[in-house]
Amino acid sequence: MKYNGILVVDFGGQYNQLIARRIRENNVYCEIIHYTQCLEQMKTKKPLGVILTDGPSSVYWDNAPMLDEEVFDLGIPVLAIGYGAQMMAHVLGGKVSKSEKGENGRVKLIAGSSKSGLTVHTSQLFEGIAAESMCWMSHYDFIDQLPDDFVETSHTANCPVASMENPDQRLFGLQFHPEVHHTPFGQKLLKNFIFKVCQCETDWKMADFTQEKIDEIRELVGDRKVMCGLSGGVDSSVSAEMVHKAVGDNLICIFVDHGMMRKGEGDRVMDLYSRKMNLIVKRVDASKRFLSKLKGVTDPEEKRKIIGVEFMHVFAEEAKKLSDEGCEIAFLAQGTTYPDVVESGIGPAAMVKTHHNLVRLPEDMPMELLEPLRMLFKDEVRAVGEQLGLDQELIWRQPFPGPGLAIRCLGEVTEDKLRILRDSDVILREEMEKAGLNKSVWQYFTVLPDIKSVGLMGGERTYEHVVGIRAVNSVDGMTSDWARIPYDVLDMISRRIVNEVAGVNRIIYDITSKPPSTIEWE
Ligand code: XMP
Questions:
Q1: Beta 281-285 vs 329-333: how paired, if at all?
Q2: CA Rg, the chain, in Å?
Q3: For residue 300, what pLDDT is reported?
Q4: CA–CA dist 169, 173 (Å, integer)
Q5: Structural contact between residues 468 and 497, judged by C-beta atoms closer than 8 angstroms
Q6: How confident is the model at residue 30, as a pLDDT?
Q7: Splitting the chain (522 residues) into consecutive groups of 10 residues, what average pLDDT does each group show?
Q8: What share of the chain is helix, strand, coil (3-state, %, to 5)?
Q9: Pocket flag, ligand 1, residue 232 (CB < 6 Å)
Q10: 396 Cβ partners below 8 Å, 6+ apart?
Q11: Chain-centroid distance, C-alpha 404
Q12: Peptide bond into 515 cis (omega under 30)
């Protein structure tokens, strides 16, 4: 670690990497470490500041992750968030209590405190931030009593200590999440911490990351061969381009068509690769085997796991074929990004869903994994894509999940349900394009909730499928808000799907944000 950076201490929260990228966005170097390494690394690396992150624990649990009190005596500024703040309060003699109701989502924050007599302007962390603003909360436990020498600097209707600080020792605690976009002043607050409190300098760039990774891959791979699974999405394309820059034609790409792509997608993706990227790409049609493995399977996690495992089998078979031809594959490159890692429950964070490329390699597959984007978010991946000179069409494609339509088709995946999804999705895309919304809405698609409802068409009773429309705005896929598509556009989409897609008689619109929902339905 460069000594002028920030240490982010991981307690297993969903947004820890998000904090790291917020720091990097300000061109300040940062590293994430496990909480057990905190004290030792603070002593050896002497960072300019430390951020303790949120986590799923409660300070009252047996074996709850705790830091030694000494961490707070080293003279290094500490910003503690969520569980991190509760743990800091607990260790320093404050009291944490449990509330029945909890606070989740957007909440009004009142900065400055009548109790402590402190105003917004006296807190360095809140400099330039309005006295009343919205913040993002996600907690049940809360700080009930402050440790000695701490003052409360903000509160909400249900949370007496939304933030606290000991300005002399430069220790700060926040119950809310400054790192998510739903806390509009969050970036300002983090900037106050890294620049005003910690006095960091802006000497780190994304370009450094890209070049460092390419050099790292080149050194690791040497003159061995790499196989890369391409899906047509930005993550795998950027990952392939990065490996290509590092090892040239020692990279062999495989595009697996699992039969659950959108209409015409396989051809379009192959065309993009041949026209826009100089890669060797082999297309493997594996649709029959994927669909037969999914027969009768309804559980979302089981579906995801089957698809992940089947991908690995296809890669293993392709590697074996190449090896029989004298081309030994030593590495498998994947476009795994940070949300895939964190939501799959790798490490201490809670599992949400198994992302398809997080399935481990089988033991008889003697390849090492290369995941150059593992620490990045979607928009950072796009920034790397720009630096690599990747085509705009590939960089700005809407995210499409590796398991494809299988996770938009609730219940068993059947050819007929896939047909409904494909046909309705085309209509949605056409209408969004016509309305000029295709560039401004981050991701949109149709889902089939596997329920039927009664309707009336042509004077006859019908009992047909319900199709859902999901359209969201997001920056990185970690959180999202539902897109406010104008009613007349929704109306046209609804009419067209019901009239043009056989087997559908009702359309619903998903108006939930993430959290509490996720973007995909499975
Ligand atoms: P969720 O549903 O987790 O989705 O809120 C966040 C973003 O990730 C995409 N997604 C995936 N992408 N493999 C992928 O490559 C997966 O298994 C996967 N699951 C979800 C989703 O489309 C959204 O953009």
A1: unpaired
A2: 25
A3: 97
A4: 12
A5: no
A6: 86
A7: 78 84 89 89 94 94 94 98 97 92 88 67 88 91 95 92 96 96 94 97 85 94 95 92 96 95 92 87 96 97 95 92 94 87 56 64 80 86 93 90 95 98 98 96 97 94 98 88 97 98 98 92 98
A8: 35, 25, 40
A9: no
A10: 234, 382, 439
A11: 17
A12: yes
User: The tokens 């949120």 sit on which residue?
Assistant: 54
Q: Chain centroid to CA 127: how far?
A: 30
- Ligand 1, atom 10: nearest CA belongs to which residue? 401
Q: 399: Cβ below 6 Å to ligand 1?
A: yes
Residue among 370, 304, 369, 373 nearest 337 (CA): 373
The structure's pTM equals 0.74
Both tokens of 407, joined, read: 């996770």
Q: Which atom of ligand 1 is nearest to the CA of 480?
A: 5
Whether 4 and 201 have beta carbons less than 8 Å apart is answered as yes
User: Strands (DSSP E) along 193-328, which ranges?
Assistant: 225-230, 251-257, 281-285
Helix (H) or strand (E) segment spanning residue 315: helix 300-324
Instruction: Characterise 65 by phi-psi region: left (phi > 0), alpha (psi -120 to 50), beta (else).
Output: beta
Residue 140, SS3 per DSSP: strand
Measured in angstroms, how far is the CA atom of residue 354 from the centroid of ligand 1? Answer: 10
